[in-house]
Amino acid sequence: MHATDAEQVIVVLVGRLRATVEGEERTLEIGDAVVLPANVTRQLGNPFDEPVATPSTTRPGGRATVGTGAPVKIPWVR
Questions:
Q1: CA 74 → CA 6, 10, 15, 26, 69, distances in Å?
Q2: Are 3 and 64 in contact (CB under 8 A)?
Q3: HSE-CB for 46 with a 13 A CA cutoff
Q4: Per the domain annotation, does 12 fall within a domain?
Q5: pTM given for the model
Q6: What CATH number should be reported for the domain holding residue 54?
Q7: Which terminal CB of the chain, N or C, has fewer other CB atoms within 10 Å?
């Protein structure tokens, strides 16, 4: 579980994605999108036997916090 300091948008292009947001779990399929608000706990994963491809967008300079740790730069955000 982690949270980011900026809104994030994810779209599923291939496969399925499991998203848990604020404790609510759902499965996203091809064509589904999810908007993850800033500072909301989330966990994204692929427990399925198929690859998943999901472009994701957020503002530049975003940071993520895991548990009570210090915020760190999100590696793919520039």
A1: 11, 15, 24, 23, 14
A2: yes
A3: 11
A4: yes
A5: 0.82
A6: 2.60.120.10
A7: C
Domain that holds residue 63: 2-73
pLDDT of 78 reads 67
Distances (CA, A) of 31 to 23, 34, 50, 53, 55: 23, 10, 16, 11, 11
Is 15 among the domain residues? yes
Give me the residue label for tokens 């994810």. 10
Measure Cα distances from 48 to 2, 28, 29 in Å: 21, 12, 11
3-state secondary structure the chain: CEEECCCEEEECCECCEEEEECCEEEEECCCCEEEECCCCCEEEECCCCCCCECCEECCCCCEEEECCCCCEECCCCC
Q: What domain count does the chain have?
A: 1
pLDDT in tens, 42-51: 999 999 999 9
